[in-house]
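Encode chain A's predicted structure.
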Amino acid sequence: MVEVRVTGLWIYPIKSCRGISMDQMQMGPTGPVFDRQWMIVDENNQFISLRTHPKLSQIFTSIENENLKVQFGQNCFELSLTAQSADIQQIIVQDKSFLAGVESEKINQKLSVFLEQSVKLVRYQAESFRDLGPAASAVSKETMFVDDRPVLVTNTKSLDALNNTLAQANLAQSAMNRFRPNIIISGLEAFKEDQIQRITLGGVSLSNSKMCSRCVIVTMDENSGQTVSKETLKYLPLHKLAKGPRIIFGKYFTPESLGTIKMNDLCQIEFED
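Encoded structure for chain A:
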């Protein structure tokens, strides 16, 4: 029997900005700890993303000494991972509003200059609550600034299959970080992850799965944010879902138990009937 193992772990502290590759990941009640804990909003407190603002790909993050280091252009800021902002505002994500803490005027001024529009960096904190609703589990009731469920899993053989198809069509190859996964697994046949119902990695179980529909971000170069191949979406699997046909790559999950996931952890998988 082929072993399936963890071969990549990623968090994206600021939504739509550069991610951080990790040797191990702590799974908390809202998903991978510090994943999408921050987000950039416009002057109307509406979130902005890489879909419409490719320059977000030039904002780099790292975690050092209990701080989030944020670098863009000639600027470098350090934000406490645990601080709570006193400036609480209502923000809008996917047509739903909830509370978030606004970071300092200093970083917001520099970000506004860098992105050439008025923006604010906000953080998910004690006053925030995004209800997972039917996707919730006993240990996970809310999620931060992710698009859907808290954890996204992708499969290396699915990317290999996509790139083989793109090569046959003389199109540019794709890279896994364009799909912005949290957990990358290897050893599973291509697109078999679409049938996963529950997966246990190390001592952490994930369930309440949902296929991840895709947008134009997967056609963008992960380093520049510029569109490389508009054709990529055409070669991804199309599934008939409740809301109609959707282009799919990867699968969302909700944590069913908490703990630490490490590189090379063995995966135990339960498939849908």
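The longest strand covers residues 244-255.
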